[in-house]
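For practice. Any example?
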Amino acid sequence: MIEQFKAGMGHLAGAVTIITTGSGPGAVGPGAVGLTATAVCSLSMAPPRMLACLNRHGATFDTLARADAFCVNVLGVGGRALAETFAGRTGLSGADKFADTGWIFDEDAPPRHGDALTAIRCKVHSITLVATHAIVIGDVTAVWNRPDLAPLVYHDRTFQTLCPLS
């Protein structure tokens, strides 16, 4: 049944995001960490809240639980290499994942990527543990948009776009 479930979930297209937490160089607090995720959505508009599901056995969740803030970086079509890096497909880990020069490190805040289609910073509102994962709900504290980009989506276990690549 697990293989059938994975195959079924492959038909559920999702926006590709990088969830970051911790803080960057020169800032106080836990070091920056992140992961690629598609289990992310808006939860409410008033107040504005996001929901993200993270594996609770990884460094990103451990840091997020201590840092109390995270950023959802929604990737555009040019973000495939970033998605693969933060999904662990390139062999880079820890701070090396942030070697891309597009990361913006504001003091005491999780990093956001300047080339993200949308970056949404959140303060952790609640965390609910469910089996291997955690449902993290965040109160939105800041939003940056770049509507000029096509979105990157994950469907059938591959990165794709809704628009033809040029």
Remarks:
- Residues 55 and 133 are 4 Å apart (CA to CA).
- The chain has one domain: 2-161.
- The mean pLDDT is 88.
